[in-house]
Structures
1.
Amino acid sequence: MRLARVILLIMTTAMAAHATVTKTVFGTLPDGTAVDLYTLKSDAVEARIMTYGARIVSIQSADRDGTMGNVTLGYSAFDGYVADPSTYFGAVVGRYGNRIANGEFKIDGHDYHVPINNNGQSLHGGLIGFDKLVWQAHPIAGGVEMTLVSKDGDQGYPGTLTAHVRYSLHHNALRIDYSYSTDKTTVVNLTNHTYFNLAGSGTVLGHEVTLSSDQYTPTNKVLIPTGELPTVEGTPFDFRKATTIGARIGADNEQLKIAGGYDHNWVLRGHNGEVKTAARVYEPVSGRGLTVTTTEPGVQFYSGNFLDGAKFGKAGESHAKNTGFCLETQHYPDSPNHPAFPTTLLKPGETKHSMTTFTFSTHAK
Ligand code: GLA
């Protein structure tokens, strides 16, 4: 009896033990601003997160033999991130993650123009989005809180936006909490743009993906949703049962051709603001699994189609096509121009919250 109680005490203490958090300097921007790196370490996972773009730099998790390995794409040296304007490795993207058609939207009858940086469209907040700014940071229990104040008119968006992104590690789960408020009505879509590769190297085409989704948002030629929400049934977009990324990526399908693979938003089933499972991924060789839960209504599943092996930074790492995938939990692309989509409007006086978790697991053969 006494022994059982001691064991129970040890177990609950271990479960409640917070991940350790340490801080070092990762690099310096050309203007001299120091960029800090926070290392979160639990009994199962080590996540490194930096203040430049509030980015996840790496996540180490065990394979089925217990060997730790990095399951995200990124650079070993800071200068790689600064030199690379277009992959958004690990970043929090905003103020509006994903695309806004022609960089235009209306709020209360007023026209707003935001920078065009992708095929005539605005992508991931514009030319200097949240991914390229240094966030203020302080440690919290088992994690780090990053804060960014984006001024009224920043990249053309109205309202001073205050955004807090809290990363915390709980055993094998990395949790991201977003909260944000404004002093003038604006639009916001924050997500994290980490590229995962559960095998640690090679392409991700053999990863098996399951998405909790019956519908998706097909796009026009410049990846702006048409507004339709067709069923995934009978299409290469049906991931209701575990299917490898590579199984149908080369199918004769107009939507796949437009994006050069998967780069679409899936409508998450039964969205009601509560935390739900959005996706599960399994990599059979390493035995690693990833489960994504979120309060968001959609997820952009991107198969790394635009990775082209370019080299950035002193360390000279390159990342080839399809060597990483993203699961960007979010509101649908171009929502400001689609009143029927869940709203991305943020009004003064309200604070919005959203939450996403990435949980790492291992599975026997
Ligand atoms: C998002 C977009 C993609 C691509 C990547 C970054 O996921 O949907 O089209 O731009 O960002 O390269």
2.
Amino acid sequence: MQHEETVEKDEKQRQLDQYRVDLQGTRLTTDQGVLIDDTDNSLRPGERGPTLLEDFHFREKITRFDHERIPERVVHARGSGAYGQFRVYESLAEYTVADFLCDPSLVTPVFVRFSTVAGSRGSADTVRDVRGFATKFYTRQGNYDLVANNMPVFPIQDGIKFPDFVHSVKPEPHNEIPQAQSAHDTFWDFVQCQPETMHFVMWLMSDRAIPRSFRMMQGFGVHSFRLVNAEGRATFVKFHWKPLLGTHSLLWDEVLRIQGNDPDFNRRDLWEAIERGDFPEWELGLQLVPESDEHAFDFDLLDPTKIIPEEIVPVRPVGRMVLNRNPQNFFAETEQVAFCTANVVPGIDFSNDPLLQARNFSYLDTQLIRLGGPNHAQIPVNRPVAPVHNDQRDGYNQRMIHQSETSYSINSINGGCPMSGILSGDMSGVFQHYQERVDGRKIRKRSPSFEDHYTQATLFWNSMSSWEKDHIVNAFRFELGHVKRRYIKEKVVEHLVQVDHELATRVAAGLGMPEPAAGPPNHGRSSPALSQANSTRETIATRKIAILVADATDAGALTPVKEALEGQGAVCELLAPHEGTAGTLTVDRQLTSAGSVLYDAVLLADGGALAGDGYAIHFVREAFKHGKAVGALQGGGALLDAARLPDRQGVVGPEAAGDPFVQDFAEAIKVHRHFDRDVAAFPA
Ligand code: HDE
């Protein structure tokens, strides 16, 4: 894989450097810069006396502590981020005047924050949920925020329903249960009352909702936006991020165990990959639709519950993003980063999607309360690299010292500055709204073109491989299994009949319901691009392999295999019954402190002691049950036998020694998960 090597700091890095505080070799002071003698004992009259009010250091320290928290985001509270860079492949000047999309020599700094939606800040990473994928491009023409998700459709069509939707999925108000879960009555009640959710629900019940890694997730801008070129001509656009590592997911059973084993699974994965130098990369892709084709589809381009199938309008790869730097302070950077869909630059404009219109209001409003006022764009992570000059003034936490006597326009005292394009007569580089003609009566009404809620839900179902369908059915059964009210489950099944009768029947069977009556015939169309089965499976780069070793492991046999796997980019960890060393090998982790669920594959290098170790046997069987590649070197044969695996798909035994072993094992890992194994009756 190609890595963007950045020897020189980009503009954003240089800007951030001004704010960094290095505490190495410093002496302790108050916030006022006064040196402190003792921060471990408060001031008191006599050793056993009460604390004195005049202890300003004590009061300042406690006061600052009391005020450390800011409100968490109402949605997307849990997230983690990284800096990186974006570069366009070739000029898109035919479509847009956005500088960063027109100049292939330009490296644009970015900050990306990935998130879950429903859970609180401290919730587990690997829950069934949508993932946020928000990118801030620090362009020379100002900040552009592409605030995307890892699913291309949304549950609702109009932003006025967002509070209703979010209230339904959040913990129920009477007892604040459950945390970070959609498996409860109010969410499914919302779904059954609101059939526009059906396409989204199919995605949410699919493996997309439990990604293996943020680095292996697609991103979607969801709405149709507009690109606008120098002639003022607009083109509708849908934004896509495609990960170079492919799009891969976890298994539901795995997820349940990871939550206890490592609640920070996705966050840690991103952090560690970047620290290792395994910089995640995505291609930016565009689906472009000329304005003249606005009504050419059997759905409405303005409806955010719909995709444009890639087979109808292909995704054109236009650029590449690499994330290559972890933040240095979580709160200052990841918690305070403020995205807003209204942060656009010349050449990028909105459509009339009613969800997007609501978002353009909501994000700035959110930031006013979260970040304590209107000056949050001055917080280092949010500061544009483009110069900022205007007559907006004052407010909480103003950090600028404006020197001019004037703060109004039009003025004559300051030579009319800062001067708008219109006043100066210089319109170069200014943002000009796309001049769309809009006529209509003021009404609270949706267009009939938004009414079809099932066709694309069916398209999604039809596009799934058989194992993806199994996972969707199991997800519906799990979720509805947690719903207490029978009639809600029945109503959901009625909606599923509209999507596909087989799906509804399989879900109903799990809920102990009779086979539902036939619904409308399935249209039979599919879109192969929707299936993760068609994702990239060409690399083992960054895949985590657990190597099980013990004191008598043959290091001579293991080392070349490990090196060959690492040579292909895999990340190997040696697990043994105890920490320290196993023979001449250095142990990375104690076997009992790490579940198989934290790895993509397992390599058995020792069968002597481990063949009789129940934990090691469980480790192998669980990895197998979760579809992972299992490899056994000569020494590991006894452990492989002890694990009594029911079939050999994705299992590479010691008979393929040497290079063929490495090759076969790597091929088995590339598959990601061997879902065709028959594990239904196999206890881990
Ligand atoms: Fe958001 N959304 N959203 N959303 N959203 C927020 O803004 C909102 C929507 C998305 O990492 C909030 O600063 C409304 C779609 C991401 O900081 C809030 C509506 C998509 C993030 C908000 C939507 C998203 C947010 C909470 C319907 C995918 C995390 C904190 C009209 C395309 C950004 C904040 C980050 C965050 C409102 C719909 C993605 C409350 C009202 C559609 C990735 O303002």
